[in-house]
Amino acid sequence: MPLALLALAIGAFGIGTTEFVIMGLLPEVAADYGVSIPTAGFLVTGYALGVVLGAPLMTVLGTRISRKRMLMLLMGLFIAGNVISAVAPVFGVMLAGRIVASLAHGAFFGIGAVVAAGLVAPAKKAGAIAMMFTGLTVANVVGVPLGTLVGQNFGWRTTFFVVAGLGVLGLLGIAKLLPEQPRPEGVRLRHELAAFRNVQVLLAMAMTVLGFGGVFAAITYITPMMTDVAGFADTSVTWLLVLFGLGMVGGNLIGGRYADRRLMPMLYVTLGSLAVVLTLFTFTAHNKIAAAVTTLLIGALGFATVPPLQKRVLDQAAGAPTLASAVNIGAFNLGNALAAWLGGIVIASGLGYTAPNWVGGALAAAALVLAIVSGSLERRTTARGRLAAGSVPAASAASTPSAEQEPVSVPAHR
């Protein structure tokens, strides 16, 4: 594996750290700016919405310059956004910094995956892409807990300066180690947009929004929930985030392993289990051991849905996957924004810090319903295709005299 992959992994590590570390620092940030916890939650919502808008926009703009230069530009945006957050004198400026940093998120992973695959032999492409995404996974096990620890002991602004430093390392690594990449051929936007006429693509993205959103409904407010409800000390949030990160790693590996084998059954099981665990978190949050175990399970079940959901979109948009893939990355973050917003509403309504858990359970349950609908539509389409191809048994055909007069119409799905 070439060293250039290390530069991409460092960039992914920084991006993953800045996305999730804010959840461990919400009380400190809220106290510093004199705002409520639900208001501080807009730092999660704003970042997520920035990814939603930035993923397709930056991906399309990235076709106009070389991939190496685009990756460098994205890391520049990431660095600038974190520096703005670190020095922000008022809450609004910090929110703006979060949005600037978020613009790099989706396009970096989309373009970076293409670049990583092009650096190695065809037989090693999957391993190269996995190595880059390892940076994101490790960020949740190492970067987020350490960032939270640094912020609690040296001030939350220090954490964002450190994250900006990681961005500088990633930028220098890309500039030094990554070979010059050719300018990609122009994207035919009309062809890419055609994928969104496929109802299965839209259903998969809706599952992404609701399913992964359920995770963020609970995890956005994990710090006040664990300290005020479960009774953990502030310093314990660090290892709780490590548990969540370890769950993410395990769930991601399991989801990736079974996505190619039994994709829809995998989604049924993970989304259903996630809905149950999130709902139970409303009760288990009152006990330290039960709360810690539930945090681990939420990370595992939540990220077990990521590979199958992403593969579902790629499969259904096989003819034009570039924009659909980028938009689905944004869909994960749209779910984050929706869940953080809804969680803030129920807390502000006086329902307590555990209320976002049943909101998350409801979102995951809604995603399960959509998965069942999607699977049913797929089976129906497959059955119609077989009927049109003449695969109906002779006895059935003979018992239907009007079969020749009423040809079956097969929906065209990409």
SSE layout:
Elements: H1 4-33, H2 37-40, H3 42-61, H4 67-87, H5 91-102, H6 105-118, H7 125-154, H8 156-177, H9 189-193, H10 199-219, H11 222-230, H12 237-259, H13 263-284, H14 288-304, H15 306-316, H16 321-351, H17 355-388, H18 394-398
Count the DSSP helices.
18
Query: How much strand content do the residues show?
Result: under 5%
Name the shape in a single word.
globular
Overall mean pLDDT: 82
Query: Secondary-structure element sequence?
Result: HHHHHHHHHHHHHHHHHH
Radius of gyration: 22 Å
Percent helix range: over 70%
Largest β-sheet summary: none
Low-confidence stretches: 394-414
The total count of strands amounts to 0
SS-based structural class? mainly alpha
The termini sit apart by 35 Å
Give the key terms.
globular, 414 residues, disordered C terminus
Structure explained in plain terms:
This protein is mainly α. It has 18 helices and no strands. The chain has helices at residues 4-33, 37-40, 42-61, 67-87, 91-102, 105-118, 125-154, 156-177, 189-193, 199-219, 222-230, 237-259, 263-284, 288-304, 306-316, 321-351, 355-388, 394-398. The radius of gyration is 22 Å and the shape is globular.
Describe the structure concisely for a colleague.
The protein has helices at residues 4-33, 37-40, 42-61, 67-87, 91-102, 105-118, 125-154, 156-177, 189-193, 199-219, 222-230, 237-259, 263-284, 288-304, 306-316, 321-351, 355-388, 394-398.
